[in-house]
Specification:
Elements: H1 5-24, H2 30-39, H3 44-71, H4 76-92, H5 97-110, H6 118-142, H7 148-171, H8 177-203, H9 209-241, H10 251-276, H11 295-307, H12 318-344
């Protein structure tokens, strides 16, 4: 079992909340622990956003619970009615699901039967939940701040390597179809995680002007890295769909497709290696021209072959031609953005691995 940072932060925050709750003498310190579980966030920025929203949601739940108890009592159906009101209000205010759930917990906790003075009982439980929210925020802020830049590049690098390896195998008719089908599904899941990690990375805030400009350029570069990887994945899926029809292409043209695609794959790999700092930026051949793959000419040849053919299935190769052109275009764009970043931020390297 792998212990992630969020798991460790949740456990630590729960321990802190319970300890402080017992130390102060709250009636229900367990509510602080429950609040922690709903309040832990994957990034500092989201933690800052959530503490404001969750305090608001918790306050709404507490106010409705107190008003309901004083006016209608705490009959089970009254509790249900109060929960409906809270969910309606928090949903109207477009609060997230965790905040809504925490507000519902506040209603249930405060409308519970008690022999104590109600206001003291409600105040103690409300404060316990605020303690849990605060404990989660402090732990998010101080302990194990996420490094989404490194995490994002690692995910992109791994997905790109997998795609390019499968492209080499598939274009030579060496791939195992069930294995490739499974890998395509897995890579699709990886791409969704990459998009999610990019969103978290984009939410990280910088506090210095120079860092702000550098972060902006990095975000553009990462966005293009993701786009290029997705285009290479589209090419792989196009080859997979045409696996049983690729033999309709003349053998000489099949060899040309393999050669040109190899050039694209090599160019993509060189750009990734340059980003890792494994290719000298000062070397004239460090980023050899990506124009070497003559994809437009390849597509023209593909079209001319099938314009002369009476095969009714000839149009099935049009998506492959389109994907190859788009992949080539995105590689060109990535090359320009990478050169621009390296020229303007020579001392601000992208964190491609943990130090």
């Amino acid at each position: 079992m792998k212990l992630g940072a969020r798991m460790m932060k949740t456990g630590l925050a729960v321990g802190i909340a319970l300890y402080i709750g017992h130390l102060i003498g709250f009636v229900s310190p367990l509510l602080a622990a429950i609040a922690v579980v709903f309040s832990i966030q994957p990034s500092i920025y989201r933690s800052y956003q959530s503490i404001i929203e969750q305090v608001q949601g918790n306050t709404i739940g507490a106010l409705i619970a107190i008003i309901a108890v004083f006016t209608l009592g705490n009959d089970p159906f009254i509790v249900g009615f109060a929960i409906i009101l809270v969910i309606g209000m928090t949903t109207t205010l477009k609060m997230n699901e965790n905040t809504i759930a925490l507000a519902v917990v506040a209603v249930i906790a405060l409308m519970d039967s008690t022999d104590q003075t109600f206001l003291y009982f409600a105040g103690s439980r409300f404060t316990s939940m605020l303690l849990g929210i605060l404990a989660a925020f402090i732990v998010n802020l101080v302990f194990l701040p996420p490094r989404y830049e490194t995490r994002l590049f690692t995910k992109i690098d791994r997905a790109t390597n997998d795609i390019l390896q499968w492209l080499r195998v598939t274009t030579r008719n060496l791939s195992d179809e069930p294995a490739l089908k499974y890998e395509i599904t897995r890579i699709q899941d990886d791409m969704r995680w990459i998009d999610h990690t990019y969103l978290l990375y984009s939410e990280e805030r910088t506090y210095f002007k120079g860092s702000h400009f550098s972060k902006g350029r990095k975000m553009v570069l990462f966005r293009q890295l993701i786009t290029t990887t997705k285009k290479s994945f589209d090419v792989l899926k196009a080859f997979y769909r045409l696996e049983h029809k690729i033999e309709q292409i003349p053998e000489q043209f099949q060899d040309a497709v393999v050669q040109e695609l190899d050039k694209l794959v090599n160019a993509h790999e060189k750009l990734i290696l340059s980003l890792k700092g494994r290719i000298k930026n000062t070397h004239k051949q460090s980023l050899r021209r990506i124009e070497e793959p003559d994809i437009p000419l390849l597509v023209e040849r593909l079209m001319s072959v099938y314009e002369k053919s009476n095969n009714p299935d000839k149009l099935v190769f049009l998506p492959l031609a389109s994907q190859l052109m788009e992949y080539h275009y995105q590689l060109e764009r990535l090359k320009k953005l990478l050169k621009s970043y390296q020229a303007h931020h020579q001392d601000d390297f992208i964190q491609t691995s943990e130090k």
